[in-house]
Give the backbone structure.
Amino acid sequence: MQFVTAQNISLVLFFIGLYGVLTKRNIIKTIVSVNIMDFGAILFLITVNYTPGSIPPIGDTDLSRMADPLPQALMITAIVIGLSVTAVSLTIFISLFRKHGTADWEHVIRRVPKR
Amino acid sequence: MIPLYVLVLLPIFVATLGYFLPRSVYKHLLIAAQLVHTTLAVLTLAHVRDAGRVVQYLGDWGENIGIGLVADSLSMPLVLLTSAVFLLLFLFNYGKRYMNNTFQFLFIMLQGVTVGLFLAGDIFHVYVLIELSMLTIATLIMYKRDKQALYDGLLYVVINLFGMTFFLLGVGFLYKSLGTLDLTAMAARVAMIENPRSLALPFAAIVSAVCLKAAILPLFSWLPSAHGALSAPSAVSAVLSGLQVKVGLYFLVRLQSVFLPAFDTTIFFFFLGLVTAVVGFSIALVHRDVKLILAFSTVSQVGLILMGLNSGTDDAYWGSVFHIMNHAIFKALLFITAGAITHAAGTRDITRIRNIAPKAPIFALASLFGVLGITGGPFFNGSVSKYLIQAGLAGQPWEPLMYLVNLGTTMVFVKYLQMFLPQRATAGEAHEEPAEIATHHDLPRIPGRVFAMNSVALLMGALCLAGGVFAGPIMELLFGHTLPISGAFYLDKFLIFGGTLVVAVALYYGVVHRLEVLSAVREFRFTFNGVATLFTLFFAVVLTYTFLIG
């Protein structure tokens, strides 16, 4: 039984990211941690149904040896989505930083006017 | 029968293609597209009602491989609702200053995405659409760009991205164990799984993310800042509270039915709904900001709907679906009238808005209709759906709890209605601070602005009343469910409503109004880490629970 498999690594990555989200107060670190979680989930999906020795599903390949194309097709979409959401959150962060001058969730909360 | 993808793509295509047209042309083009959209939704609903469930796979792929769109008796009424509410809100916005091409584009995109979410039959498709709707909403709530908005937007984006990573991981586990992402095929395969416990992890991961969207008890802390965002135009708040929260509820119900052969979580979610309802109205009672009161009242109504959906009887189930539609209408109405009323009063503090009826008579009337709808006033739509939920619970030991939830809702709106009270003698300071909302007073008005706002508000008020008076035919038409109303129904309703109202007024002005400790709750805010921790805890609880009952 091998322990260092892509699947186990993906789960470890997911929980490292989760640790970062739960404990870090810095907004940049939060965004990076969420991204690590996202990549963990993506890596996990790519390894699903993978059998050693299979070949990439590109062009006219031998169907019996081809890897399952579905997770790979889906994960391209997921990577693009992850990228764009990260870009948007970083953009909002930059404006936030310019306005409040801090990258700390708790400092930002204190500077946002109470209602 | 038109292809279902037209319903999703029509708004998106028209909005994209016309983006560079002049503003006024673009606006009318979009209104025309929305009218066509609503007509198509009605036709599809009629077809589904006659011919039953329709499933279409995109791109000529076979079953279980292509992306499936599903139109059935649950999804089609919600699609029609989405189409109608977006049309009304777009018309309400007709003459607003912020209606530039970008705003219109995003708003109509959100319509297409929401329709797509209701029709989606494939769980990865749901993931993509939720992320897309999240980006659109984040831009919309920051639309007027003030200081608070950036924080609201960032919190919304990051917490949702965080939740969606759990969703994606859950999708991976599901694909690993079931070999399909299609919800229908999944339901068939779940029944064949020998050890249901192996599905506990994907179920918990996906359901936690969906509950985050639906703002169920520990996960609602992002909702008030997003829905009550100062900078969000009131039409956006209306869409968020009226429809986006329902997307979460809809998928929760869908997922529960898919996983029913493995675990029966109805009791768990029934009580979660109950707690959500109670906590929601308690917090709404504490707040003073008009938009926040409405936002927390949404949390409480979500709880009520969740209770009905999980009470296990047909009446309560369809009552809740009807309540989803009713809530979308009266909450949208309340948000848009609240926007106009706070604008007229120059403040959002409920304790300082007084004597609103002469200042904005039409909005005051419409918002009174909305309040009667949400509190279940006789002849209004809320009364019928709440009655059905209650009838579904009849005979169960927790039936009396429904009265508690009703009482809470009524209390919140007794508080809300204080804006109709006459001016207090000591309220001399009421106009010292004409808040930042009323800044554009002197700029030239776009013609048709006031007319559009008034007529949409009145129309929605009329819909609240019609939904109650014609509840029988409407339910028959939309869901094919016959309404079990006895002759004594309306008399009963009058007495219960009157009693609840009296108790609510007494309790609010006698007790709640005077509590000083409440301001501590009002000031309290979760930090991001707090929200994320609550999410993880919720995930752990759902996981443990499903593992134990599996």
User: Anything to note?
Assistant: Confidence is low (pLDDT under 50) at residues 425-443 of chain B.
